[in-house]
Amino acid sequence: ARTVSLAVSISDCLHKPARLLLARPLATLIPPHYHHWIAPMLDLGCKAVAFSVAWFIQRVISATHSAVLGGLLASRHLLKFANERGILTIDEADTLLDEAAGWGLAAAGLYFQLSHHMQLPTWLAVVLFPF
After folding, report:
1. Which pTM does this prediction carry?
2. CB 102 within 8 Å of CB 67
3. Nearest by Cα to 103 from 62, 80, 70
4. What is the C-alpha separation between 131 and 125, in angstroms, rounded?
5. What does the DSSP 8-state code read for residue 118?
């Protein structure tokens, strides 16, 4: 629902500039019999662009959220595992090591997702094919 709301808001902001910039050129290109379709066409075009932008923004927000939660989860459990095995003897409540490692892992994960345009690399897609 938030994505749709964002898309409608973006569409409302795009409608006036699109009408001012594109209505006259479209009127010269389209036969006079179809001029009544210019306004609905511009409205639909603005909505299509707005939904595409809103969907991309939502994907970036979701990727950021997942990266932060996943990075913190992995670092906290890794620190707990290291404490249980005796590799480290750090009290989890007294250190920021898990947060620093988690945020670093989150940054690396988010960079990976954004640099691959939110898609799996080919080799990983082949390995995870049925899923």
Report:
1. 0.75
2. no
3. 70
4. 9
5. T
